[in-house]
Amino acid sequence: MPLSNKALEVVTRPLDKNQIKQRQGPAGMTFNYISTDVVIELLNEAFVHNWSTRIVSSTIHDGTAVVGLELSVPDADGQWIAKQQFGSCNITKGMGPGEAFKGAASDAIKKCATLLGIGLELYQDDDTASKPGPRLPQTPSRPAPPKAPSAPRAPAASPRAPAPPAPAPRAPATSKPGNPFGNGPSTTTASVPAPPKPSAPSAAPAPPRANPFASAASTAAGPNSTQISAMTNLAARKNLSQPDMIALAKISDEQGSPVQTFEELTRDQAIQVIKAAQL
């Protein structure tokens, strides 16, 4: 059944600018997101505090806490609607398992809320979607030391008149064999060397074909169109969202927060996601 009119108005209402935060991503990119407390406030407003969550599963795998969570909300007739998603959090230095599971559960709540419509605009390709922001101010680089002045070039010598070409040496006379049938005398002629043939220019080697998944590309560059297409097809085949696909490869940003979209990945990270999805 559909949600009530009040709940539907809240979950589909555009986010206020003060509710959207920004974080630094790879390659100097800035991405938009909303915090867990904003999601909880919107759920309380939409369902008048009448909603609940349930932990379905929790595990730690390769230093990452993963939580499966179910969010339940009432529809217009009072029947419960359940949404399930996974959340993850990398266990960094000084962080205990409890803090990691709490971060993973918060991540899962936000993902479940997007299935109801809360914050969904951040994942859509419009003016309010998460887009690259301005680059952070860069530390000015040190100026290069001035180059030492080059020594003055000696004046060119006055050109000399070209010397007359030396006469070409005459080739020694060679005797041509006589008639092989022995009915005529042998003759003597001077053999003239043939002019050298110009060598054909060697063909330029063909440029190597670019490998769209090669890791030689800069790790700071974002994924190319081939990688994004591959990840999108794998996500559709496995019925996974972008954050869930990225969670398979256990990739997080520099602050340890889960990466939410394919565009936030580097090319090397995109390869990791594709490989993880194919296992």
Short summary of the structure?
26% of the residues lie in helices and 17% in strands. The protein has 279 residues and is of the alpha+beta class.
Description:
The protein is of the alpha+beta class and 279 residues long. It has six helices and seven strands; from the N terminus they run αββαβββαββααα. The chain has a domain at 5-134 and 217-278: Enolase-like, domain 1. The protein has helices at residues 5-11, 36-47, 97-116, 225-238, 242-248, 267-278, and strands at residues 21-24, 30-33, 52-61, 64-74, 80-90, 173-176, 187-190. The strands form three sheets. A three-stranded antiparallel beta sheet has the order 3-4-5. It has a two-stranded antiparallel sheet with strand order 1-2. A two-stranded antiparallel sheet has the order 6-7. Helix 1 (5-11) packs antiparallel against helix 2, helix 4 (225-238) runs parallel beside helix 6 (267-278) and helix 5 crosses helix 6 (267-278). The chain is elongated and about 115 Å long. The chain starts with a helix and ends with a helix. Residues 126-141, 173-191 and 210-218 have low confidence and may be disordered.
List keywords for this structure.
6 helices; 279 residues; Enolase-like, domain 1; alpha+beta; two-stranded antiparallel ribbon; 3-stranded antiparallel β-sheet; 17% strand
Helix and strand layout, with pairings?
Layout (H helix, E strand, L loop, with lengths): L4 H7 L9 E4 L5 E4 L2 H12 L4 E10 L2 E11 L5 E11 L6 H20 L56 E4 L10 E4 L34 H14 L3 H7 L18 H12 L1
Helix pairs in contact: 1-2, 4-6, 5-6
